[in-house]
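We were asked to recover a plausible sequence for a given structure. The inputs and outputs are reproduced exactly as logged, with field labels preserved.

PROBLEM: sequence recovery
POSITIONS: 338
GIVEN STRUCTURE:
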């Protein structure tokens, strides 16, 4: 991390040894160079990774401190980042933060889906870590190593035989076999005097992925593209949209809960028609077909999640566009929390 200077004090997480790899196209399209500046001219530099088609960028919280203005550029650190990154309102008490590029109309981003380490057999698996060394050409540097542990501590950090490799803080830690995201490089210990990391590790995705509404690659939670005409949602996870709603219009979607026990509705984007719309978000209601189960709902806005506990079996999700709202287009994800 560079904070008010040109020296980056990062450490990447590679077990045993690290070596530079040829840059893959998927890495080039998803790794983001980030610069965040305070009103006191202090600058923090780091890496991030695109984690949604709507421009969400995951990075370490110490790379994007609260109150700093952040900008980013995809795939290179050779040019000054000019595209604004806004802070997502969802937060976790970990060294992780979700930022977002504001997409142009109809713009979609390449992104990585995550894989859980807990309960897997990935110990010893080959991993890569990507970032932007300050003394390089600005090209993405990708280092390889081995995931030497699957056990995380109380901060979500997976312990490894970490070696130093500057320029990686906030960057993606990727499973080499399938390209899935298993974590980011984050602070393992922090200097109490400065608040800056003094050591680094892999912050495992399962510690915060649900809170940020991220997409898993595991077979049972694979995302499907679902048509807009009242699709059946098979929990664990589905994403669909954009779906148009006229003012005052309500639409319902049948839901098969399986054995999920709970449902999350995450509103990825709400596009309003017209500039002066006094936006209110939408009202989401989740119901179970079981007679003894409550039917609950609440108002949510863009990038917000509504969770309802339900038993297994059939159910229904209803979404209502307030009459005071203009015509809108929604894109949302429905998932069962892990």
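RECOVERED SEQUENCE:
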């Amino acid at each position: 991390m560079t904070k008010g200077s040109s020296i980056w004090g990062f450490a990447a997480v590679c077990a045993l040894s690290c070596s530079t790899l040829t840059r893959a196209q998927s890495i080039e399209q998803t790794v983001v160079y980030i610069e965040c500046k305070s009103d006191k001219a202090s600058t923090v530099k780091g890496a991030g990774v695109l984690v949604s088609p709507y421009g969400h960028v995951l990075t370490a919280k110490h790379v994007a401190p609260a109150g700093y203005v952040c900008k980013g550029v995809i795939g290179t650190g050779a040019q000054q980042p000019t595209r604004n990154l806004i802070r997502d309102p969802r937060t976790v008490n970990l060294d992780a933060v979700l930022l977002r590029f504001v997409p142009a109309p109809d713009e979609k981003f390449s992104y990585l889906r995550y894989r859980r380490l807990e309960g897997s057999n990935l110990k010893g698996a080959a991993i890569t870590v990507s970032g932007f060394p300050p003394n390089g050409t600005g090209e993405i540097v990708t280092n390889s190593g081995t995931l030497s542990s699957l056990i995380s501590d109380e901060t979500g950090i997976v312990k490894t035989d970490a070696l130093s490799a500057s320029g990686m803080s906030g960057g993606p830690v990727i499973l080499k076999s399938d390209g899935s995201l298993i974590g980011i490089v984050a602070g393992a210990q922090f200097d109490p005097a400065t608040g800056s990391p003094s050591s680094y590790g892999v912050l495992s995705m399962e510690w915060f992925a649900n809170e940020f509404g991220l997409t898993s690659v595991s077979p049972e939670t694979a995302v499907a593209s679902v048509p807009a005409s009242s699709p059946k949602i098979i929990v664990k996870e589905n994403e669909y949209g954009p779906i148009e709603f006229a003012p005052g219009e309500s639409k319902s979607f049948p839901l098969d809960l399986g054995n999920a026990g709970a449902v999350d509705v995450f509103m990825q984007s709400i596009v309003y028609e017209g500039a002066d719309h006094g936006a209110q978000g939408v009202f989401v209601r989740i119901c179970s077909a079981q007679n003894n189960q409550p039917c609950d709902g609440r108002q949510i806005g863009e990038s917000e999640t509504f969770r309802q506990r339900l038993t297994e079996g059939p159910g229904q999700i209803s979404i209502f566009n307030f009459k005071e709202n203009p015509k809108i287009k929604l894109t949302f994800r429905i998932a069962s929390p892990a």
